[in-house]
UniProtKB/TrEMBL annotation:
It comes from the Bacteria. This is Polymerase/histidinol phosphatase N-terminal domain-containing protein. Residues 129-191 form the Polymerase/histidinol phosphatase N-terminal domain. NCBIfam families: CehA_McbA_metalo. Gene3D superfamilies: Metal-dependent hydrolases. SMART domains: POLIIIAc.
Amino acid sequence: MKPEERNRSVMTITREIAHSEQSAYIEVPFEMPEHVEELVVSYSIESHGKQKAIIDLGLRDTMRVRGWSGGARKQFQVGLEKATPGYMSGELTSGNWAVLHNAYKVPKEGCSVHVTIQFLFKTPRWLKGDLHTHSVNSDGTFTLEENAAIMEELGCDFIAMTDHNTVSQNLTYPRNTNVLMIPGMEFTTNFGHSNFLGVSDPILDFRVKGQEDVEAKIAEARANGAKVVINHPHCEFCPWEWDFNVDHDWVEVWNGPFADRNARAMQWWHDQLVSGRRLVAVGGSDTHRPDPYVKHAMPCTWVYASEKTVDGILSAIDLGHVCMTYAPEGPFVQLKCGAYMVGDVVPVGETSHMVSFQAEDLKIGDTVKLISNRGLEKEIDVSADGVLAIQIDAQGTTFVRAEVWRLFQEVDMTLMAALTNPIYFGNTWIVPNN
């Protein structure tokens, strides 16, 4: 799927600087609009005499100086999560801001400074990444920098850092990457693993003796703002053997290459949906080291988020706006019912229950399955590479979800290639952590 363009606006302001203003600090004011996700500022200097003008660069927000690069840069970016070195990321509060200049050297004839300001707005879009990875901070061999570089090369947007029972990765991650680093920790016990996502230090001590301790650790992580994921619950090596009624937000149904453990997790998840639970399914590669099969963003988790921030992505996952593909290149699948998408509940009273399935990057021989609480609603063998669009009438169902299966020649096996969360119908759904 091609990256979706963000809404943006651009303005250019020219400030004439007279020789008499040499050594003065100058503000070029502008209004920061609402809902900006990233600010990009660049400038050029036009000297009006033979002498070269030297004009420094910085930024002020509504409260304070937000950054300064002097004469070292001609452009900077400030976003909600990341910023050019010398500038601080964070909230882009609407109101009066200013580009700052130090008129260090100004010709007698003066100079013109041309400032170009771009506002990139929060735009709902599909972002893709990996929600379960490891590094040298626990038992992996990848550095955090290597993890980020690999994900950037794959064209991914985010990666969750989930080393076992430690949080050092959340304090030392690289800032010079376009990949959003989501803080996390894999709460690793002898009887099951769980990811705590979204906070740098979810619990003070991981050690547990029994069920009561596990519940206390999860409660501590929850109180500190973490999202809780039950990982690979039906893995043959480290399944979830604690009570499944522990407080949790999501379940990892797809861990690494699709195998029997994932099929068992999928069946458990499906049974929960049939019982009336609105439970979000996620995936993660669980990559530790170079491996011919266990690779970054395999599976790849796609999230329809309003902004590329930790909170934006985790909030969107909470809504169930999630689908998974075996790799970043797809096949990418969407389900819609009118204005509603995966994760949404179509309320009682909606006259249409027509669910639209749309897919990109399918291959001849793929099998598309639309599944509800009643079982298999529709199955199609794909006859041409590329896109496919079909509809089914979901009247009488409580949810509909989609799967794509593919024959992978490398292993001579038919395996999951894509999976969506459901679209739900009705108003009686039980959310796990309520």
